[in-house]
Specification:
80% helix; two-stranded antiparallel ribbon; 259 residues
Length: 259
Amino acid sequence: MITPNPSTQIFTILGVMFATKRLDMTDSKIVRIIRFAFIVYVIGLQAFLFYARIQVKARNDRTPIKITNPMSKLLEGATKNQAGQVKNIASSLLSSQSTCLEYDLKQIKSMNSGLLVNMGMLWLLHFKMNQVQPIILQTVQGLQNLYYSPLFQVYALGRNLKRPFENPNAISSMMDMAAGAVEKNTSISNDGAEDEEQIVSSSDDEEDSEGEEEEEESEEEEETEVEKEDSDEDGSDDDDDTEATADDSDEEEDDDEED
């Protein structure tokens, strides 16, 4: 597929602006020539669209294709780590099934609609605001865009391009960049969530270990108190035995004295 070079488009605009400065836009003859060139461009484009419509219907290609919305790239980036059912529902809403025949006819209709919109804007700029430069720019850029259009490459240059056509332009590039940014932010947020979960789990583990240590310390204190109480009881029993022994010895001494 032949794709336009951004630098070529910039040089085309600059060349048209430089050429218009050297032309006398108040000369009626020059204005008529510019109008005639634009009319030739419109007739040529309509002739090509008519020819392409005939070729599409003659080929009657019913090969099924899947058409996705450019917004689906953003959605894929946002739902990358979501459940599979959520991603399937989102992709089904932003995609549709079609055939090569229907797709090419829709592209032809889209090109024709774009031409009509441009003609309306040019009519306003030229006949109401007396601007001539937009007609020159639209004629030159229109021929350039026609040459790089996938329909022209398929039905005029005989190339075999895959449907849906790839249209590398500023909008699609911005969508790709936005999708990448969304995907990056999603991964960062997921990593942050994982880090928070790890921090929470580590804090829980620390709390559990601290609780276990406190329980062990309390158990040790209880055991120490029990041992202390046992030792105190043993000491009191020894004292009672000692006192009883002393009483017995005193009684024996008293008996001996009586005898």
